[in-house]
Structure formats: C-alpha cells, structure tokens
Hints:
Bound molecules: acetoacetyl-coenzyme A
Radius of gyration: 19 Å
Distance between the termini: 25 Å
Shape: globular
Oligomer: single chain
EC number: 4.2.1.17
Pfam families: ECH_1
Family: Belongs to the enoyl-CoA hydratase/isomerase family.
Structural class: alpha/beta
Function: Could possibly oxidize fatty acids using specific components.
Amino acid sequence: TETYENILVETKGAVGIIRLNRPKALNALSDGLVTDMEKALNAFEDDAAINVIVVTGSEKAFAAGADIKEMMNFSYMDAYLNDFITKKWGRLATCRKPTIAAVAGYALGGGCELAMMADFIIAADNAKFGQPEITIGTIPGAGGTQRLTRAIGKAKAMEMCLTGRMMDAAEAERSGLVARVVPLAELMDEVMKTAEKIAAMSRPAAMMAKEAVNRSFEATLTEGLLFERRVFHSTFALADQKEGMAAFAEKRPPNFSGK
Ligand code: CAA
C-alpha cells in the first residue's frame, strides 16, 4: 500500500484500515489529511481484495474537527468555490463497501461528522462527540445538522448544535449515535472482529443491504420498501444466495464467492 503524510493505511485480510495520523493537531482535518483520506478510500474501493473499510484515529482523538488554523481566514469565495468542506471528506459517505468508524477520544465538529459518514460507529468508552462549531462562530458544515438530527432526534441535536456541549460514549449509545461502546483497550479488536464478520459475508449482499438501509434516508416508506423488495429480488441472481441457502440446508458453513 501507498504511504501518506497524514494517515496510516494497512490491510488485514479483506479489511482496509485508515488511521488518521496528525497527533500534534488531534487529527484536525486539514486539506492534506482529507486529500490523503480520499485517495486511500478510492484505493480501497477499487481493490477487489477489500470488502470492508475501517476509519479510526488515536486513543486521544478520532478527529477534533476541521483545521481551524487553516480555515480561519477563508473568504466566502474560498469556501464556496472549493465546495468546502464535503468535496473530499464526503468520499466516506459515498463508499459502496461497508464502512465502520472506530472512535476513541474526541470526535468533534468535522470529526463527529466524519464518523457519522461511516455506516456505523463503534466507540471506545472514552469517546466524546460534539458539534462545537457554534462556539467558534460558525455552524456544522459536513452533516452535523442533518446526520446528527437523523441519528439522535431533534431535541438532542438542537441542544448539541446550539450549545456545543459534548456527549460521552454512554449517552451516545443511549441516543443511537453509536452502535456499540467497548472498553478503550478492546476497541480495535472488537472493530476488527465486526469488520471480519461482515467481510466474510457475500460482498454483493453486504453492498445491497447497505444501499437499501441508506435508501431509507432519502425515500418515502413506500418507495423505500419498493427499492428494498427489488434489490431483495435481485439477490436471487447471486451465486452467493444459492450457496448461502444450500449451505443452510446442508448444515454446513457457506463459502461465498462474492458473485
Ligand atoms: N484545528 C486545528 N488545530 C486543532 C484543532 C482543530 N480543530 N483541535 C485541536 N487542535 C490543536 C490545538 O491547537 C493544539 O495545537 P498546539 O499544541 O499547536 O497549540 C493541539 O491540537 C492540541 O490541542 P489542545 O491543546 O487544545 O488539547 P486539549 O486536550 O487541551 O483540548 C479539545 C482538546 C477540547 C479537543 C480542543 O483542542 C478543542 O476544543 N479543539 C477544537 C474543537 C472544535 O472546535 N472543532 C470544530 C472545528 S469546526 C468544524 O469542524 C467545521 C465543520 O463542521 C466542518
């Protein structure tokens, strides 16, 4: 795999791992970092040997947000013409392969937004989530007012976006922001177990399940159900569906080919 300045990239079996790595700035999402991340995500998406993508940070910080020092003097046109901020960051949200955010420490501002772009978040017990943009005179710009509201509802999202307060891991789990909380020392083991479990499923079935769940955020219930049913019907064209059901009937583990 390629080496980057602001991230560490490795693969374990069919799982691709991107570790945000700007420790001196608590992984603040500089242009350099998100450019690296976009390239690494493109590479994993194109790599037929990778089934699942994990994005993580350090024990102290997943990411403390957009790089404040880099953007502080931006003009409106600097922001507008470059489509700041989702042009590069948004790549995580458009990945077709399943993605997991493994969050320890701070996930603030753009860090929280980036985590919410993953399919789901597994958090360490020291994780802290927040949208503190209001405290620096701006507002969330990469999904904080939209994905957070869908995840935890209006009352908590409003309170967080208006006060900038942080939510700890237990509250994040209670509120539906994260799938699961685990002890910090076990975070990567638990995330890798989960990632490997997904990676062992039929890749097209996993991609289709993800596509269908994501459809629920865009469609009415009737349209969403129709989309689901059509995709479900299409799984009967998969060799993996034949294999999965035959394996069940024959009381043996399935051996998916990814086709
Ligand atoms: N941008 C740039 N640098 C940052 C940063 C950020 N978002 N967050 C932390 N850093 C830097 C600090 O400036 C500091 O650098 P120096 O040592 O050179 O001074 C270093 O990282 C360590 O940070 P602290 O000394 O502040 O560490 P702490 O443990 O005392 O506090 C913290 C941790 C509470 C996370 C605090 O760093 C903080 O509040 N960070 C900013 C959080 C924030 O406001 N994020 C939102 C950004 S706006 C945004 O993301 C826009 C969007 O929606 C897309």
